[in-house]
Amino acid sequence: MEFRVLGPVSAWRDGGEVPLDGAKQRTVLAVLLLARGRTVSDTRLCQLLWDENPPATFAAQLYNYVSRLRKYLGDEVEIVRQWSGYLLRTGDSRLDIDEFERLAGLGRDALRSGRHEEAARDLHEALALWRGATLSNVTDHLIEAESPRLAEVRMAALEDRITADLMLGRQADLVVELSDLVAAQPLHELLRSHLITALLRCDRQADALAVYHQGRRVLADELGADPGPALAEAYQTVLAGPGTPVVAVAPRAGPGWRDVRPAMLPPGAHDFCGREQELQALAGLLAGTSPSAPQRTLLTGMAGVGKSALALRAAHLCSSEFPDGQLYADLGGTRGNATDPGDVLGWFLRSLGNAEEAIPRRLDERECLYRSQLAGRRVLVVLDNSANYPQVRPLLPGDPSCRVILTCRGRLSELPGVTRVEVGILDPAQALELFATIVGLPRVAAEPGAAHRIVQLCGRLSIGIRVAAARLIARPHWSLRYLAQRLADERFRLNELRLGTLDVRARIEGSYQELEVESQVALRRLALLNTADFPIGAAARVLGVTPRVGEEVAESLVDARLLEIAGSDGGRRQRHRFHDLVRVFAREKADPVDHRVVTARSALSA
Fold first, then answer.
1. Sheet containing 326-330: which strands, arranged edge to edge?
2. Which of 44, 83, 231, 293 could form a disulfide with 227 if both were Cys (CB 3.0 to 4.6 A apart)?
């Protein structure tokens, strides 16, 4: 099978085109092909299909596009559901952009080695693979996202091909082509310098000077800039006269971040408060320079407790300990759209100075290059919102001088050699300090009792306090007492703890959606029990399953940080309890069947 994206997106089998349904289905195919064997998240696909306005049925529509693609493409390729997204395995199929990059790379290498005939042949073949406007039959959103990059890749190959043709004395054939290219892109200095060179070699010195002066005026009028080195050198060659040897401009270096020390940490929270003990522990772990010192630290805790804020605070405070830079990635594990580690390695490798064409496509090759480039360096890597061990494993440096901070709701029990730091809810003093820092000390001092009440109703959960404080800032006419009254009604509490992107319910929902159905049912029913805490056997009784199955379900809720351990003897005599806001959330989710079951078994003993 053959796939084409260098022009209209299409699939071909045995010389005939495979029928596809329309622009959106072709968009899905193109995105998966351009990902080169990496997983594309649902979020990314939705953005490229519908931009910021996906329909309510987007999940079903996306599933339908993929399902029909599987049917049309047959068994020669495989579309796999992975990492809350899709991955396309093309097997032995041919992709035109792969062949283009192979030929362009061969041509570029030949050009740098002085093998001009070989370079021209390979580059001509590479450019012949482009069949009209790239991605011409997909959504505008994909065109906007990918066309600039693809145009740049094609232009780089075209510049190299023109250089090779000039070196072979083909200037007469190039004048018309270069004149059209310069007319279409008057600010492109390298193309203009090539045109000047071709004209001069055709004994058209006056025309060459006119092309230079026109370019100088365009640059001054449009950019307020003088000609760059390539154009200036071509001009000096013209002035020197036709008898002076003309040297074609060398092929440009590939794009990349050169001589940049990676500093990818996003800004930390300026109103960060408390957590002195955790910060001190983290600083000690990060400052250690001995190869035997702990290299990995995992911050773990329930949704919204403040793990990311703590990680960034510690990372900024200790950034001077890492002179070779800091790498950061939000892995999306708390949003149900975990980021593919191959994509993250691509970001990291670019920030370490690698040009796009130098970055391998395969995950294992990216992993090897990444670890090789960190060897001998002291770099801090922050992996925020990790999903699971298979996701983070390729992102761990191998050099013992590097340090890693991870955040995850779970404990990543498979991760070896890690120091785990439990991040709990704020103590009363810290919770009040955070609230006062955001709202302002005068308002808190005027109503101290109401302030204490608000942070307690927020369960001393960092995100809850931040939302409550943000609502008071947005409504300066509200008293603290009024907000406390609104929060006191459990039926509407989570509605009150939502403002813009800050949403307590959404944070807890992320953990809930990752549960198995049986665990979701247990969570809802346990929340209906009118008791502060309950034994581990309660899960079995509300589900009507064996004690062993009930114990496993309860442990899954503890692992998801939706239940807390209230007491344990180290075995099965455990007691569990809810965080207040998790209980409110779970009760919202309860349906009539849940209520009937719990009522019927109201004789449950605590």
1. 326-330, 380-384, 403-408, 296-300, 418-422
2. 231
